[in-house]
Design a protein that fits this description.
24% of the residues lie in helices and 30% in strands. The chain is of the alpha/beta class. The structure holds zinc ion.
């Protein structure tokens, strides 16, 4: 079986934990976390944005997204109206516990499928250490980025591999590392290598996602491979780091160059594995958006990020009636004075004429005005920005939460899909303004 990965786009969000909070939670402060106005959907959207070609395909969308408030069809509708998926397609919704290997295996036989994975889940206990967030989108087809030479699974008769784990990890981490990671890993790796007739010494290394911290040199020696790496963070629930694991694998392959061979092992009680070969265009067909960190969570913001703040003013009827046009950036352009009116209105904003035609707004533009809102009910000050979009039309909205500075008049900006608020049990998304530098 071979599966070609044509393009890969990844997104590493820009929020971090303040060092004192990280220390209190018992985790590193440099793990990437989503901003307060990001969630699984917006992470997926940003990863799909990184697929350099338009994310159109005739195959299914393989979706592996941790819960969130939206069911898969609603999620696809948002992605479609926000311009990242062109047409309705079948959706293969994978369980959030599905790892990277499981998602890729699902693409076999589907030709041009797209897979989108988001790592995004807060521990229910806010005093527990969080794991890193990221998202990745793959388009399957010709093996320009990479080729999957094999997928293997090891199912073991045991209780669920992570279900009973305490917040601070499994009770006996050394037992897990020695017996389960090293032993099961050797077996899985053996299956993968034998299936593809590859010797362990031919690999550049193995990316391991496991429920415990591992000693990389020790495992490398035991498995007789040059290197062993981990994605950022420890996988506390099955599948939690599927995106980060794939991202680590692609980064190592990109460093090693075309033709390089690498194995991915997702281990706990049993596990799944992948054998990948870097494609001829690994350098350009894998694109990662990972800008320097911007914001950080302190105690106050962290507690608020985990809490559901109920609003009552989201109207389902209004969402259904208006969201398509707003997120679709649908406008009207006047036949006589060429002024672009957004949101859609029956008559022209410039001259009042009703002779207008449909016009889709660009997603980049220039700041013409702004101000800082310090409203009582808003948790933080928000910059409101007016943007003249390239090609016509004026957009008014908020600046994204993770930004290195406030915008000024003349800044080049782009529109990004973000969470506006949650109300009546529903997330409400809208475009926000992001610096384009
Ligand atoms: Zn007009």
């Amino acid at each position: 079986m071979t599966i070609g990965i044509e393009l890969a786009g990844a997104y590493v969000p820009r929020y971090r934990l303040e060092p004192t909070l990280a220390q209190a939670l018992g985790c590193p402060s440099d793990i990437p976390l989503h901003a307060p106005d990001e969630d699984a959907l917006t992470l997926l959207w940003t990863a799909l944005e990184q697929l350099t070609d338009h994310a159109a395909s005739s195959g299914p969308l393989i979706l592996r997204s941790p819960a969130g408030e939206l069911e898969p069809r609603a999620l696809v509708a948002y992605l479609a109206v926000a311009g990242r998926l062109t047409e309705p397609r079948s959706v293969l919704a994978m369980s959030p516990q599905t790892g990277a290997a499981g998602v890729i295996r699902a693409a076999a036989g589907h030709g041009s499928a797209i897979a989108a994975l988001a790592d995004q889940e807060r521990p229910a206990d806010l005093t527990a250490a969080p794991s890193s967030d990221c998202s990745i989108a793959l388009r399957f087809g010709a093996p320009r980025a990479a080729e999957v030479l094999g997928v293997a699974s090891l199912a073991v008769l045991s209780f669920d591999r992570w279900a009973r784990m305490a917040a601070d990890g499994p009770p006996d981490t050394r037992f897990v590392e020695e017996t389960l990671v090293a032993g099961d890993g050797a077996e899985l790796l053996g299956q993968l290598l034998a299936g593809a007739r590859v010797a362990s010494g031919q690999l550049v290394g193995v990316v391991v996602s496991a429920a415990v911290g591992i000693r990389h040199h020790r495992l490398a020696k035991q498995w007789q491979v040059p290197r062993v790496w981990s994605p950022l963070g420890v996988e506390r629930t099955a599948g939690r780091l599927a995106g980060a694991t794939l991202l680590a694998a692609f980064e190592r392959l990109r460093e090693a160059g075309p033709g390089a061979l690498l194995a991915v092992l997702e281990l706990g009680w049993g596990g799944d594995g992948l054998l990948l070969r870097a494609g001829p265009e690994i350098g350009t067909a894998v694109r990662t958006l990972a800008d320097p960190p911007c914001g950080s969570y302190d105690y106050r913001r962290w507690l608020r990020a985990g809490a559901d703040t109920p609003d009552t003013w989201t109207s389902p009827a209004k969402l259904r009636r208006e969201t398509g046009n707003l997120l679709g950036l649908a406008a009207r352009r006047c036949a006589s004075c060429r002024v672009v009116t957004f949101p859609v209105n029956e008559s022209c904003e410039g001259c009042g004429s009703t002779d207008t035609s449909a016009f889709t707004l660009a997603r980049r533009g220039t700041v013409v005005s702004h101000n800082l809102d310090r409203l009582f009910a808003a948790p933080e000050e928000v910059q409101m920005v007016v943007v003249d979009l390239d090609g016509g039309g004026r957009f008014f909205g908020q600046l994204v939460a993770d930004t290195s500075r406030w915008v000024v008049v003349g800044d080049r900006v782009r529109l990004a899909l973000r969470l506006l608020h949650r109300g009546a049990g529903m997330p409400h998304y809208f475009w926000k303004v992001e610096l384009d530098d």
